[in-house]
Amino acid sequence: MKSLKLFVFAFALLTVHIAAASTTNPIKPTDELRVEMVELIGSSYLDIDEMSADEFSADVLFTVNAKQEIIILSVDSENGQLESYLQRKLNYKKVDHRPSKHGEIYLLPVKMVKQL
User: What is the tens place of the pLDDT at every residue in 55-77?
Assistant: First the structure.
């Protein structure tokens, strides 16, 4: 019974170690990819009257698949409308970028500023 507990503990420790080692930190997209994404997003998010604040920000976590399409993994923002807007504008849109390795995850900070 004691050896079974030791085996289960060692297996659990190994599983946690492997899971922690396999997580990747997102990287910044190249300047070319960032420029393409900014063009896809556009500059007219909401009418000036609808914006409750002068600026909104979001962190977009995404990857580029083999078909050179942007796949949005998550959008983190305090504004739910901005999250859905970015999802709609970017998800499955084609770009010229080819990832250097399969499964690269990128983090793009986005800031939408109210223009008067």
Answer: 888 999 999 998 999 999 999 98
Rounded Cα gap, residues 67 and 69, in angstroms? 5
Alpha carbon distance, N-terminus to C-terminus of the chain = 73
Asked whether the whole model's pTM tops 0.85, one would answer no
With vertex at residue 104, the alpha carbon angle to CA 43 and CA 13, rounded to the nearest 5 degrees, is 130
Alpha-carbon span 70 to 91, nearest angstrom: 6
Q: Which two tokens stand for residue 9?
A: 């503990």
**13-49 b/e (C-beta count within 10 Å ≥ 16 → b):** eeeeeeeeeeeeebeebeeebbebbeeebeeebeeee
